[in-house]
Amino acid sequence: MAIRISGVNIPDNKRIEIALTYIFGIGRSRANKILEKVGIDKNLRAKDISLKDVKRLRDEIENNYVLEGELKREIMMNIKRLKEIGCYRGLRHIKGLPVRGQRTRTNTRTVRGNKRVTMGSGRRTVEKK
Prior knowledge:
Blueprint: E1 3-5, E2 8-10, H1 16-19, H2 28-38, H3 51-64, H4 68-85, H5 88-95, H6 109-112
Antiparallel strand pairs: 1-2
């Protein structure tokens, strides 16, 4: 029996503490808080949880937390707002540069895409004399 919470199938063979992190918006610490509040042992496997506990867990998560599509929409709206008001962070989002103060002389390959624009980076073979 696969547990389904907020549109996500929870893997059966993992501990419930880890299995809950498959839901976007729930990490390890939030998963532990939820399980402690509901009163489920975090070392149980997801397949070993009773239907009554699954219902309590689902109610707790869906009623008290913003998750999955709604959370993604909220994040997108926050970034859109930053862009519209023209603040520094919004401009960094528009330009595709690091937003949180990281250096850009080196080490921004993941944000900018793997652009190598320095002199020695063009892999051209040397002409023979």
